[in-house]
Amino acid sequence: MYERILVVCTGNVCRSPLAEALLRLQLQADGRAEATQVQSAGTRALVGKPADETVLYVARQQPRLLQELERHRAQQINPTLLWWADLILVMETAHIRQLAHVDPQAPGKARMLGHWLGTAIADPYLKHESVYQETHSLVEQAVASWRESIHG
């Protein structure tokens, strides 16, 4: 079982905050929120920014998810965060390479969020709302696919 999960994307305003929020809700539903901490960060984070407005709009039908997302503020990956995590979930293979520039040990803890689905999760930032909806659905599926691996 993993105790500290870091979810990484590029800007930390779309994909990783969504995955972080979904993971937290999944852990709460499974009664494991106390045992596992989740954070997110970006490789080129828009530091201090909230979750993207379209991410919030797409999540509006899920009040608990929306509430989690509204608390989010973007942060940059750094050596301390990478050391803290025992599992790093990334959206694209490029993110794994970028982690290595910050901490050469980090790629050994990194896995693709879409691993069990056999896909990377493309960045919807500044694209049409339908792309955000597709990304939301894919991230939901990917988070659900990690359930057993996270719980051990």
TrEMBL record:
<dbReference type="GO" id="GO:0004725">
    <property type="term" value="F:protein tyrosine phosphatase activity"/>
</dbReference>
<feature type="active site" description="Proton donor">
    <location>
        <position position="123"/>
    </location>
</feature>
<dbReference type="InterPro" id="IPR017867">
    <property type="entry name" value="Tyr_phospatase_low_mol_wt"/>
</dbReference>
<comment type="similarity">
    <text>Belongs to the low molecular weight phosphotyrosine protein phosphatase family.</text>
</comment>
<feature type="active site" description="Nucleophile">
    <location>
        <position position="9"/>
    </location>
</feature>
<feature type="domain" description="Phosphotyrosine protein phosphatase I">
    <location>
        <begin position="3"/>
        <end position="149"/>
    </location>
</feature>
<dbReference type="InterPro" id="IPR050438">
    <property type="entry name" value="LMW_PTPase"/>
</dbReference>
<feature type="active site">
    <location>
        <position position="15"/>
    </location>
</feature>
<keyword id="KW-0904">Protein phosphatase</keyword>
<dbReference type="InterPro" id="IPR023485">
    <property type="entry name" value="Ptyr_pPase"/>
</dbReference>
<dbReference type="InterPro" id="IPR036196">
    <property type="entry name" value="Ptyr_pPase_sf"/>
</dbReference>
<dbReference type="Pfam" id="PF01451">
    <property type="entry name" value="LMWPc"/>
</dbReference>
<keyword id="KW-0378">Hydrolase</keyword>
<protein>
    <recommendedName>
        <fullName>protein-tyrosine-phosphatase</fullName>
        <ecNumber>3.1.3.48</ecNumber>
    </recommendedName>
</protein>
